[in-house]
Amino acid sequence: MDYGALLPEASLLAGGVGALLSGSFLPRHRQWAARLIAVVALLASMVTALLALGTPTTVFSGSYAVDTGTAVARLVAAGGTLLVIGLGVEELSGDRRESETYALLLLATLGVVVLAGASDLLVLVVGFLLASIPVYGLIGLDLSRLGAEAAVTTYLLGALAGIVLMLGSVVLTALGGGSTYRVLAEQLSTAPRAAVAFGVLAVLTGLLFEAGAVPLHSWVPDATQGARTTSAAFLTTVPKVGGLLAAYRLVEVVPTGVPVALLVGLLATASMVLGTFAAFAQRDLRRLLGWSTVSQVGFLLLPVAAAGRSDLALPSLAVYLLGYTVTNLSVFAVLAARPDQRTVQDARGLARQQPWAAGVLVVGLLSLVGTPPTAVFLGKLTTFTAAWDGGLAWLVVVAAAASVASLFYVLRWVSELVRPPAGTTPSPGLADRRPWATGTALGCAVGVLVVGLAAGRLLDVLSTGLVR
Amino acid sequence: MLDLVVFVPLVAAVLLAAVDVGDRAARGTWVAVTVLDLALLVGMAVAYRTPAPGALAYERRLEWIPSVGVGYHVGVDGLSLPLLLLTGVVFAGCAVYSLREQHRPRAQAALFLFLQTACLGVFAAQDLVLFFVFFDLTIVGMYFSLAGWGHGDHRRSALQFFLYTFLGSLALLVGFIGLYLAADPHTFDIPELIAAAPLQGSPVAGALVLGAVLLGLAIKTPVVPFHTWLPPAHTDAPAVGSAVLAAVMLKLGTYGFVRIAMPMLPDAWRAWAWVLVGVGIVSVLWGALVAMAQRDLKRMIAYTSVNHMGYVVLAVGAAGLVSGSDAVARGVAVTGAVTQMVSHGLITGALFLLAGVLHDRRDSYDLGSFGGLAAPAPRFAALLVVGAFASLGLPGFSGFVAEFQVLTGSIGATSWAVAAVPGILLTAALLLRAVQQLLTGPTRGLSVGFQDLRATETLPVAGLLLLALVVGVVPATLLGWITPAATSVVELVGR
């Protein structure tokens, strides 16, 4: 039993519990101590994850993989949560539920990492529960009508997804005579194809809830609009890391003969098309972003569809996840810095009032559509290449068309930014400035460009495959 | 040296965006940087010696994303040098023209310097991904120029421009990925892909990949029927935006034909050649006919761009008609196509700057509202007449050299190219009619009290037209650069 291999996960758990306990003792205005605990735990998790890089291996009888995929999840999920805490400092500071928020964020991050590392269906189920239950709490913390409604929607869909996931796990375990991926990879090739396809589809459906993709996507726009900006930023970003890496691991296990690439390709198409077209009509910026993240999952599913068929599939997924995380958080950080920006019209004239905030938004939004040389462009370039290499040229054409369509709603926002301000809207006074959120936004924007220009170098490092 | 030329404007743009230096200093910096960049380019051109076929001058190659075969690879040859110089000249002209700009001059200077880096980068790039990065950034830059400084219904035009050209650029990206995956070993490097010609012998895949690349380039060029974004974008763009869009950005599409599509996909190019010849002829005639119907000077010039770009497409299409034609004729056609890119850039850039003066003084481009402008504005009138004659292909100007070669070479390849000849007559008729309507007769309507060109307006327009004259009278230097490169493109298409 190699407990040392789980130090990054243990740091997250300790941080989550520590933040929760400290919250019981701290006075409301001194909850920064809980924030400190959370930040230290996240940093510790990232540092131990970096130190653990090396030979890929599985631990605990092959039920948990410690390999490239897990390392990506540990670093990107923890880094993303760190940025979420950074952009939420002003929103959460002194709030009644500040410490609890940090605890939920860390526990959800832990769930995401476990989900990504699971090499056994039972661990996958545990990871799913650990990743999803704190998210219901995070959404429900905002006691507004929209927040409560979104929490209920998410909970109901999540419960459904959990059951479907467990059903799929049971079917696959029964067919394979074991629940570890190592056993499944060996045994499933002799099992009836239709039954395997059903089991895989059921497990994937559960994971797609976590990632926020069609068919279980409808909680995403509601929650993004209803929850606080901090929670919205988290739940549209970090869970995707776990959901997609878990889906990738599963697809690699599926024996040839089951048309899983086609299946994932169709699900990707549905997410891209629905997410993009639904975003067209939105006036609320958060809701628009919610739908946009649904379409982004569609793009992220391209390398999943190509899993096992192209050497570039896993590296491209990792790079896209990294790029998407900084990009999405850069946009949410601007919304956190300017909570008065609710609708598309509110964005009018921002370029004159706050050139830096507008600049971050332009970089982030252009990255979302995949304009070079930003982070998501690198992701799109590599995932498109991987998908085509994996024999899915049609999916690349669909994805390119969806990218063009997504430009439409992004430009509605950008064109408001550069319009002259209507009347004399006063720019916010110094007291309303939010230095932490603004700083996080600027940092993310720089990150978008750095990832876009330099992260290509990571592809080599990432090209070692997964282990089971 | 080439890196310096490409990135100096970007550095200046970042500094101008970050540091509030004041409006005067911003305008001055813009002019100084573009002039410096142009001086560097001229220095490069003076020291340029035609490299061996397939080789490049001022080449630099650095690793960027080695695991997917993407590199920072730049270099110059006879196809790119004239266009790099053109870019330098046009941007310097725009900087001088904008010395009187009142509307957020610092932001505009930063934006155009950024755009200059993007345009120069496209012509310098020798890697498909690098090419694509700069290609897309030109779209972003032009979008903000339209959205921030346009007039009329500019937000809608800007949206349409971005959507349409972004569609083209993604088609291009799909085509590039196809080329990358077909090459063995996989690479995005342009000279390597040209040497490998990866899709030779697989006609279906080759045709599809070329189709994607052609769609991307055709939208950018633009050729009929993908030209509908161009007139509104031009009409609502600021004068310098129009000048850059017409003079430089349309060339990104046609440059892609000779740099990427023809040499990399020779089999498919030959298969598509008749389509291109047809589309070229239709663009020539359609552009001229629709231009005739315009009442708006800027729209009219925009449609003559469609007409002029049609000649380029006709020539590169004719270069693919290998069987039963003479390699010399095809070489002449391609040389003419590249010359036409330069010539159109110089002349149309000048015409759009002149059209901008109408809007600056009277907020209108309507031909019917002006009349007898020659009396109050003799300098404007003189330059407009020179520009119009240059544009219609009068001997002595660059347009004649270009169109003569295009038509000689194309007709040498296929006699069907004769169908494009009436385009010249139509263009001549419509330009002369517009000049007559604007300048002659009694001074009336919006012409009354019209202020003549200021020095900052005269200088760039006169400079561009002077260059068109120089190219027309002594084309030897320019043709000396282009001809070897064009010959090698024709050889590559014929393999």
Structural summary, described in words:
The complex is a heterodimer of chains A (468) and B (495). With 468 residues, chain A is an all-alpha fold. In chain A, 74% of the residues lie in helices and 1% in strands. Chain A has 20 helices and 2 strands. In chain A, a hairpin with a 4-residue loop joins strand 1 (57-59) and strand 2 (64-66). Chain B is mainly alpha-helical. Helix content of chain B is 73%, strand content 3%. Chain B has a two-stranded antiparallel sheet with strand order 1-2. In chain B, a hairpin with a 4-residue loop joins strand 1 and strand 2. The longest helix of chain B is centred in the C-terminal third of the chain and has 36 residues, at 327-362. Chain B starts with a helix and ends with a helix. The model of chain B has no long low-confidence stretch (mean pLDDT 93). Chain A binds chain B through residues 312, 315, 366, 369, 371-373, 377-378, 381-382, 384-385, 388-389, 393, 396-397, 400-401, 403-404, 407-408, 411, 414-415, 418-419, 456-457, 459-460, 463, and chain B through 64-68, 70, 129, 132-133, 136-137, 140, 143-144, 147-148, 155, 158-159, 162-163, 166-167, 170-171, 173-174, 177-178, 180-181.
